[in-house]
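Async update (no meeting this week)

Hi team, since we skipped the sync, here's where things stand on the single-chain job. The sequence we agreed to prioritize is pasted below, unchanged from the tracker. I ran it this morning and attached the output directly underneath so nobody has to dig for it. Comments welcome in thread, and please keep replies under the output.
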Amino acid sequence: MRSHTLLTLFLTTLILSGVSLSAQARIKCWKNKDGVTECGETVPPEYSQKSHTELNDQGMVIEKTQRAKTREELEEEARKKAAAAEEKRKQKEKQKQDRILLYTYSSVDDIKIVRDEQLSAMEANIKVTQKRNEKIQYELNNRMKAAAAAEQAGKKPRDDVLKDIKKLKQQIKNNNKFIEEKRQNMEKTRQEYEEKIARFKELKGES
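Output:
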């Protein structure tokens, strides 16, 4: 009620002074630090970031300016916008993958065939590498025996033998790493195809 009275008194004062509101800059009203409405031709700097209203010559509100948003509010808006955009991207990608799934396979058996082919190929790679390791281990054992024999005879093993031992050990290590990665890939492939099968059934309405 007090705010309305102050506004009325302000407008009345202008009218009584013979000043036409239409000839003046727009009248702006804001709330001060005590929550009391004040009006004038310009908003004081300390309230410029707060919300305020602009009045016409009848005292009617013709425009309302919202307060400036805080940094935290702007950051939260940006976070929500980014999250919404990411969710939209994921949905589009999911729809794309669903179309590919339905276009690529005609049945669950088709999916299983492709899965088994990939698993068989990886298993074959593992077996080949294991065989290679057996040969390398054989060569390594021979080099180590030669080095041990030299030491037993009180001699220093030949540099080329020591170099071969180091190289062969590294080859075995690299091959074992390859085998472990292939086994992990096999497990990952099984999981991926289980998900494909489940999604395919869902899209086809199969149990």
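Quick observations from my side:
The two ends are 68 Å apart (CA to CA).
The helical segments are 2-16, 71-104, 108-152, 159-204.
Reply here if anything looks off.
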